[in-house]
């Protein structure tokens, strides 16, 4: 139900109280979102005592939901968003796209909320970078770092229902104030959205009849299930229903300016992605997209330091938050009343999966997004976001004087780089994330690109690791074995693949490992956690080894395009990587079938000194 303009105006003047409880639960829930935002103005920086964990954010939302129980759904996302605007940067684009339907004030005494919640709110209200320190981010249970601002923006956009925004025809006209009209269209800014088409019915518990039939890493969730909404793929890949704007950007067709954008994608990803690629044309392919960082500690994190001092604002944490916001915002957008409380939704998403669906969780954010969008559709969203921002802020330092052709070129490069270099690559936890001990000695650099990928299983630990805590513990255990028992400088593998959806950095892309005796400088050694003598790794882990990891390495110039894949046993006397896994590897296109296993050949002098492979952990086979 649309909110009357007078009602919105009264909300902006702060004239409503908790009598709003009698209104639509989602409308009232949005009121709760503004409460926390208003609190930021009363706080002093650095007052938070809660650790910067996603669990702390969920705790804050749960406490706020308990203060206003009549909201039922208690979608408290935009509380932080207004805080971010009022406490510093004024985000006009987000103001236009989201604020028109929000409740900006309800009477709630700030003292009713704990000081810890108030302090946390201030700490995560606004994403930013100062020097090498990144602010407004938290550590999630899956080991990923997440920017809270784009996450909450996506949740707020998803709650609003109407996502299709008509763009002004003249991108160089005068800027808009809140409540002004587009001269070309006559649409009032808070109500610029077109009527949202009917969406697919979703049961109140959030489950969908077709979700259970999908693989765990492929979601039926759709960033846009509405054929008239721009920018995303339809539900069925066999029945494409591209929007007119998407069709215009097809190969061989002349680019046509978008006339609509999806507010959910704009406020989470498209706008910031476009601005990141506006810095300089020379940096389009080296923009620091998705830069990682390290926490001061993992148990109670307080400070997050980026690994690259030249990183763009579109860091790994920002992209994680943007994708989570887009995926969860779409979920909320498709879910009828009564919607689940945000605290429960986030607990499930950063836990075992939303509504019991293990595929809809943070571990698989890249796979879910990659299955739902593409470079051409994202190009239109980024282009449209830049057009709208240029329309709202014609003096914007990065957009001033930019032609439509230039904006289209920026959008094309941004979308291509994002889909190929980010969505097309696996999520890799850096060494500091799993608690690696320092390298002993001086590492030897690899001469890149390399020509081989050597596949291992760890044998011990034998059980697959299925969550961050167990995978990180396994990495530390293997490193201790390799350093303290074997006497090596570091963990031997280049990378290790868990069954939790993540890859763990060992020696990485640039340093010689200790994984395949006599061949360590010629290829990367990648191991699956587990014993795969009689069973196979998880399907998502196998896909990472077969396609995602090597494909990413080839694009980055780290692995030769004609690389070959070999099992450990083809080069060293060992049963690694296990019979079941090796038999599967032998069916992969890149498998080097001409190199026969060496399990029956004469071992090298060094391998003779080792116990038989059947009783030696594969982690010790150099």
UniProtKB/TrEMBL annotation:
Domain of life: Eukaryota
InterPro entries: Amidase/PGRP_sf (IPR036505), Amidase_domain (IPR002502), PGRP (IPR015510), PGRP_domain_met/bac (IPR006619)
GO terms, molecular function: N-acetylmuramoyl-L-alanine amidase activity; zinc ion binding
Keywords: Immunity
Gene Ontology BP terms: immune system process; peptidoglycan catabolic process
Keyword Magnesium (UniProt): no
Protein's UniProt name: N-acetylmuramoyl-L-alanine amidase isoform X1
Organism: Zalophus californianus
């Amino acid at each position: 139900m649309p909110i009357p303009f007078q009602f919105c105006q009264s909300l902006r003047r702060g004239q409503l109280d908790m009598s709003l409880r009698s209104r639509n639960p989602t409308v009232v829930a949005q009121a709760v979102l503004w409460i926390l935002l208003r609190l930021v103005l009363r706080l002093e920086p650095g007052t938070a005592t809660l650790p910067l964990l996603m669990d702390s954010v969920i705790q804050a939302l749960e406490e706020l939901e308990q203060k206003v129980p009549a909201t039922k759904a208690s979608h408290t996302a935009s509380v932080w968003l207004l805080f971010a605007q009022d406490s510093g940067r004024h985000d006009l684009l987000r103001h236009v796209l989201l604020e028109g339907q929000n409740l900006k004030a309800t009477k709630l005494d700030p003292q009713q909320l704990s000081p810890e919640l108030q302090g946390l709110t201030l700490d995560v209200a606004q994403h930013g970078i100062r020097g090498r320190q990144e602010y407004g981010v938290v550590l999630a249970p899956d080991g990923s770092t997440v920017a809270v601002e784009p996450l909450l923006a996506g949740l707020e956009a998803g709650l609003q229902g109407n996502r299709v925004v008509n763009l002004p025809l003249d991108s160089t006209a005068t800027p808009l104030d809140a409540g002004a009209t587009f001269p070309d269209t006559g649409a009032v800014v808070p109500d610029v959205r077109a009527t949202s088409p009917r969406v697919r019915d979703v049961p109140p518990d959030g489950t969908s009849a077709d979700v259970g039939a999908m693989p765990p890493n492929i979601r039926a969730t759709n960033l846009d299930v509405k054929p008239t909404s721009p920018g995303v793929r339809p539900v069925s890949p066999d029945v494409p229903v591209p929007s007119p704007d998407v069709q215009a950007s097809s190969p061989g067709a002349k680019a046509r300016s978008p006339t609509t954008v999806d507010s959910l994608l704009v406020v989470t990803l498209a706008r910031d992605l476009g601005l990141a690629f506006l810095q300089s044309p020379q940096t389009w392919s080296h923009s620091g997209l998705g830069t990682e960082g390290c926490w001061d500690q993992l148990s109670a994190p307080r400070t997050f330091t980026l690994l690259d001092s030249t990183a763009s604002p579109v860091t790994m944490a920002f992209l994680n938050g943007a994708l989570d916001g887009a995926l969860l915002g779409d979920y909320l957008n498709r879910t009828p009343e009564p919607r689940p409380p945000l605290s429960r939704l986030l607990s499930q998403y950063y836990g075992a999966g939303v509504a019991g669906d293990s595929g809809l969780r943070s571990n698989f954010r890249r796979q879910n997004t990659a299955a739902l969008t593409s470079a051409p559709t994202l190009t239109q969203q980024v282009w449209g976001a830049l057009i709208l921002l240029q329309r709202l802020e014609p003096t914007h330092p990065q957009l001033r004087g930019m032609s439509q052709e230039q904006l289209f070129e920026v959008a094309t490069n941004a979308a291509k780089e994002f889909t190929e270099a980010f969505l097309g690559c696996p999520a890799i936890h850096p060494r500091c994330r799993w608690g690696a001990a320092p390298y002993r000695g001086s590492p030897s650099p690899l001469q890149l690109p390399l020509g081989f990928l050597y596949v291992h299983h760890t044998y011990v630990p034998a059980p697959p690791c299925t969550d961050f805590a167990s995978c990180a513990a396994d990495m530390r255990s293997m490193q201790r074995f390799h350093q303290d028992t074997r006497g090596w400088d570091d963990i031997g593998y280049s990378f290790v693949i868990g069954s939790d959806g993540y890859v763990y950095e060992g020696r990485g892309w640039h340093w010689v490992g200790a994984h395949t005796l006599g061949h360590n400088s010629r290829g990367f050694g990648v191991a699956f956690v587990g014993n795969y003598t009689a069973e196979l790794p998880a399907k998502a882990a196998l896909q990472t080894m077969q396609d995602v990891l090597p494909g990413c390495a080839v694009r980055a110039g780290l692995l030769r395009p004609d690389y070959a894949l070999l099992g450990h046993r083809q080069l060293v006397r060992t049963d690694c990587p296990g019979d079941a896994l090796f038999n599967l590897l032998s069916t992969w296109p890149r498998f080097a079938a001409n190199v026969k296993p060496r399990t029956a050949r004469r071992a090298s002098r060094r391998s003779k000194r080792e116990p038989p492979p059947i009783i030696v952990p594969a982690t010790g086979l150099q």
